[in-house]
Amino acid sequence: MKYIVVIVIILVSLCLAVNVLMYLANRSKYYKLINLLQEKFALPAPYSLHVHTGFFGAVTMIYFFLRLKKKKKILFLRKDDPAYAFFDDSNSELANWMPAFYYIFIFGFICGVLLFMLAVFLEAKDRFFP
């Protein structure tokens, strides 16, 4: 059991480190994409907040851009909004790194949740079944 916990902690740490490095390597593309979008369209309220939080809001903004690129429904954005045409022109190459960033984050988050659930389970086991 101890080795499983150590492996999950290492996975969470690796995912975080890779996400930070990917963000730093692609920060200029990220902000260029945001600036191009804000020049033409208004961001919905929650996303306009996440734009200003740097790395900590990047996952939410990347989720927004991935949904926009696939033309899927986005929270607080009408389906007929002209912003869905944002990736019709040459902005698509700026977002090529985003799916990897998003899925690495999701994998790390799931590992973190599993680690939390394991800790709660072990604590409950020790407390209620000594």
From TrEMBL:
Tree of life domain: Bacteria
Keywords, comma-separated and alphabetical: Membrane, Plasmid, Transmembrane, Transmembrane helix
Transmembrane segments: 6-26, 47-66, 100-122
Protein name in UniProt: Uncharacterized protein
Gene source species: Pantoea cypripedii (Pectobacterium cypripedii)
